[in-house]
Structures are given as C-alpha cells and as structure tokens.
Amino acid sequence: MKFIIRAFVFLILVSGAKVHAGELRASVFQFDYEHVDQQAMSLGFNYSFDNSYETPIGTVKPLAGAFMTEYYAGMAYAGAKIDYKIGRLVITPSFTPGLYSYGSDKRGKNGKGYSKPLGQILQFKSQIDVGLDIGSLGVLSLGVSHISNGDLAEYNPGVNNYHFNFTKIF
Q1: What is the reported pTM?
Q2: pLDDT at 19
C-alpha cells in the first residue's frame, strides 16, 4: 500500500511538465469489490495518445495501459476512450480488450484474499469515469469498471471495480 501512495504522490509532483504528448492516468482501485475474499487493492496506469479521431459520437482517443493487484493479478490492455466535457465536468467512457493473468493463489496472513481466475487470458474492460478538471494540474475522477471475457469461455465470473483516478495532460 505504501508503494501505491508513493507512486501516486510522485505522479502529482512531476505533473508540472507540459509537452503536448498525451495523457497519463494513475488509478488506485478496489478490484472485485463485490466478493470480500477476492478483493484486492490495485494500482494502474494508462496512457492516452494525443492522436484523436472525430466520429459522430465524439472524439475518440486510443489508449494503452496496465494494472496489478496486491495479489499479483494483472492485465495489459489497449483500446479507446471518449472525453465528454461539460464545463469543468469530464465524463469518460472507455473500452479496452486485453490480456489478464490471475497471479497468486496464496492467501494473506489474515486468511483472506487471493487472485481471481476469470476463465481465460483474453478479457474486456469497460469503464466509465466522472471527474473534475482542475486546470493545469489535471483531472481528478471517480469511476467504475467491469472486466469479463464476454462469455467467450465456459467460465465467466467477471469482476466489478471502483477507481480513484488522477489524469495529467502533457
């Protein structure tokens, strides 16, 4: 947990640079909040590229990212997001297919917690965030996400997560 806090503070401290290269997002989140024995604190990063594509539903930006839980489950993904801005309010839906590894089956000292197998390596992550643009510092947002294999495998438990995000535009 100390590592997650240090990484988050580091990202805030280096957020003064502005080079128009894209957006870097750091997320601290609760993985699988619905199942007490499988919950895990997680740290994720994603990068939204400066390239964007105008579509009838908004400006689509490609993104790539990864996360890891405290029980060593992790996912690397690439997909797209759309930012809808209403004044200082920012609403961001995203969809990212990726590769998931469920990590360790070991339980902690208190007897709870382990990584969750999700049925196969290919997973789909859909997320929506609602945030506040805080000017040159970036965007602070809260969000929810769902990860599942879309019934491509026989076993598809899926996981729901909630996120606290800090996004810095470079």
Answers
A1: 0.82
A2: 47
